[in-house]
Design a protein that fits this description.
Elements (H helix, E strand, L loop, with lengths): L1 E3 L2 E4 L3 E4 L5 H12 L7 E3 L2 E2 L3 E3 L7 H13 L4 E9 L6 E4 L6 E8 L2 E7 L5 E6 L4 E4 L1 H6 E5 L8 E8 L4 H24 L4 H8 L4 E5 L2 E8 L2 E4 L1
Antiparallel strand pairs: 1-2, 3-12, 4-5, 6-7, 7-14, 8-13, 9-12, 9-14, 10-11, 10-13, 15-16, 16-17
The structure holds 2-oxoglutaric acid and fe (ii) ion.
The site of 2-oxoglutaric acid has 11 residues, from strand 7, strand 13 and strand 14.
Length: 233
């Protein structure tokens, strides 16, 4: 996580949020996710992807809608795409690849645990993770550009579903707040420059905690002192 003044403002290139969903919750969603419109997709002549996949729309499946909403609310972002994988057993897998959508990637894991690794394009170095039921993996578009990723085959018998949610930049709404803060400081500057021109009557009422209205670059704006803080609206 990236912090500024104690507030989360962004994510690291890779984050693994262990047990983001409780087992009680994944148990509810797993049967619903198995009901998605799973397909075997051909990816080369006479060859199908070594797992089942599905590309649901919003409004099709309650579990998908819930997971999208969670990502959008927790990470203050907007989902721009979704892709689902169903590994029927350890024999199903995802070969090394890059997502290449220039999007931020969040992946929820349901069911059996599977290994996942990134391979650096530059050094060939592998970074391995164990993705367990309820885990949430994140990686940035920059990380995707420099690495391949893979879910190798395993001796695991159980099935696993992964829900991949592509999004805009996480916490981008907080940059809007920053813009708001910049606007606030412009207003304070405008207020201070007008203070000396206030007539004594307005000056007195302002200091008594009353609201005064002044013209600012944003139009008519109200100012008030509360507990030593200037309030503007
Ligand atoms: O199943 C996963 O955790 C990853 C799947 C994946 O990389 C993909 O669908 O692009
Ligand atoms: Fe991928």
């Amino acid at each position: 996580m990236k912090y500024r003044e104690g507030i989360v403002v962004g994510l690291d290139p890779v984050e693994l949020f262990k047990r983001e969903l409780e087992p009680a919750e994944t148990k509810i969603w797993m049967p619903l996710l198995r009901e998605l419109c799973w397909e075997e997709v051909e990816w080369a002549a006479n060859r199908t992807l070594p797992r089942k996949v599905c590309k649901p729309q919003r409004g099709e499946n309650a579990a998908i809608d819930h997971l999208i909403l969670l990502i959008e609310e927790i990470f203050e972002t907007t989902a721009i795409g979704i892709w689902c994988n169903w590994y029927r057993s350890g024999k199903d897998w995802t070969p090394e690849h890059q997502d290449q959508y220039e999007a931020h990637v969040f992946t929820y894991s349901f069911g059996a645990s599977r290994n996942f690794y990134f391979k650096s394009l530059e050094t060939g170095l592998l970074t391995e993770y164990l993705l367990e039921d309820g885990d949430l993996m994140y990686f940035s578009p920059e990380h995707d550009a420099n690495h391949k990723h893979c879910v190798p085959r395993s001796a695991e018998d159980g099935d696993r579903i992964s829900i991949v949610i592509f999004t805009d930049e996480p916490y981008s709404r907080r940059s809007m707040e920053k813009i708001d803060q910049e606007q606030q400081s412009l207003m304070v500057t405008s207020f201070v420059s007008q203070l000396e021109r206030l007539n004594p009557y307005m000056w007195q009422s302002f200091h008594n905690g009353e609201t005064i209205t002044l013209d600012t670059p944003e139009g008519k704006t109200q100012f008030r002192m509360r507990d030593g803080q200037l309030e503007i609206w």
